[in-house]
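User: I would dearly like some help making sense of a protein record. This is the protein in question:
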Amino acid sequence: MTLRLRHLRLRAFTQDGPYGADLPFEDGLNVIWADNTKGKSTSMQALLYVLGMEKMLSPSREVPVPHALTTYLMKDDESKLEVINSFVELEIENGAGTIVTVRRPIKQPGIDTRLVTVWFGPMLTEPSATAPSRQFFVRDPGAFQREDGFLHFLEAFIGWDMPVVRKYEGPEGKLPLETVFPLFWVEQKRGWSIIPAAIPTYMRVRDVQKRAVEFILDLDVHRLELQRQRLKERIEENARSWTGVIDEMMRVARRAGGTLSGLPPRPTADIDSLERWTISLVQDDETVVVETILTELRVRAAALAKTEIPQVGDKADALTAELESLGREIDARNQKRVEVHKALQLKGADIASLERRIAQLREDLQKNQDVQRLQRYAGTAGNLTPEQCPTCEQSLVDALISQEVLEAVMPIEDNIEYVRSQLKMFEDILQREQAEQQRLQDLGAVASAEINKLYSRVRTIRSDLLGPSSAPSAAVVEERVRIEARIRDIEALIASLEDTASRLHTLSAEFEELWKAGRLIPSDKMTQDDKLKLDALTKSLRELAQAFGFTTFAPKDLTIDEDSYRPQKEGYEIGFETSASDAIRLKWAYQLGLLELARKFATNHPGLLLLDEPRQQSSSKVSFGQLLEHAANHRGSQQQVIVSTSEDFDTLSPILARLECKKIIFDGYVLQPVQP
């Protein structure tokens, strides 16, 4: 997982011929020097551009390269030359020793700047070499996900496997490369303003800075956090499915005029508890367990099956008595149905009233929040209100009675909390009332069905009594058929509930697996390896800050926050208490600390550090020299540090003279005439 820059080539074609520059890089420290406005920034921006990393700077679609490669370049005599077309090429190498050459047009008629050509060979350091090539695209959607996208190729070339992260909108996705590069590629304009890095946030990745640092350090914390979050979501989905099955069984039972009991309301791994549920039905105004009702019906059906069907004349008295009994029962059932109907009407009125009250409370809450927002925006300046004396600031109330007997008006914050509590209470009441309304509707439906059955029985008995006395009793036959149908209905109800309940067994097994998976995830936020890495980074940060002359407070008090991964002191992030120059020194220490950590631990750091104009905020010459010395120490460790600077050359020369490094010095403008 390494990335080496081997050779950068810039070319701009003018009416005076081609201009350009070649910058060869080596392992260890590489120092690029040029005076201000001579094209050094052109080289550094071109490096980002050719790798498709311009979105690291901003979401703008403009080419982030200065005018020297886009519109006009300056000659040493300060005359201007119009740029007709231009391009940039970069030779890079990965940890496996694979070398590719990347070319991207900057200004080339007929060729889109989103096109990137890759030669699979060292086309710059070995000009006579031949190698196959392939074209990719950047900037457009899919450049990171699709096989023909250059960032997809670059991810694989470096050897990274970017983690899946959560976003503010849309589905999860891979952590963009542009959010990681700022941790080892510090550009001049914004890169020095933030520790650990000026990571773009417009890509809408949640906790993007944390995710980027965790990836570079190869910490387990995000993987564990993601596992916990996904496990939590699966557990919640399991609980929702469980509740859905219970609700479905309850509805089936209510439609049959029964009640269900004994089922666990929450997911459980106890299989035995899933077999203890029972359903009860209302019989003769009493709630009876369905098994008892089935037993009685089966006994009655068996007795009728053994009995010979009597003639109507033999059953006339019994049928007359039953008819009178049915009439009384129908009256009672109708009375109960009327009571349920009245209760439903009252319940509907109550629910409508609750809904109106909730709507009013929501409107009141919004109005109060608007007032609070206006007060917050207005602040205290010019706060003249009729409720307060502008001279003595005494509270005034617009009333004729004594001010002392009036209570103070509730503050807007308390009023908002009060309205919220009222809203929550009424929403809970509405939910209970809606559940009761559903129960009454089910009772009404059951009552209507029972009355219809009673009327059917009445019609059958009357038909018997009006028919010939010698005819077989249809009422007896109908009773037998009715009992058998009732048995089938109850058996079908039980079978339906058992089929639905079988889904609970599947959910219970899934819940047990989720519970076991949760126990396998470490309870600590960070693993031991993560803590060792942060401890090592903290040690490097302290040592480097000391070497660079950090003086705001003792470097030994510096620590790395385990949540934000920013430098802190005594549990507080370091903010404005440091001087501007000390903030830059701390930035140096952090960036080099990440690079040093990659030498001691397995991380995802590419072993590359690029610092554009690191001597910001007039950092001392001694500190700058220490920075270059520590950067030079990475030679021989298969790591690379590239520093661009316009530091006074007389100051820089003695520093570079004692260091083993690659010096790229430009006496005038970086872009000079080159052979075609």
In short: The longest strand covers residues 3-14. The chain is about 45% helix and 15% strand. Confidence is low (pLDDT under 50) at residues 380-384.
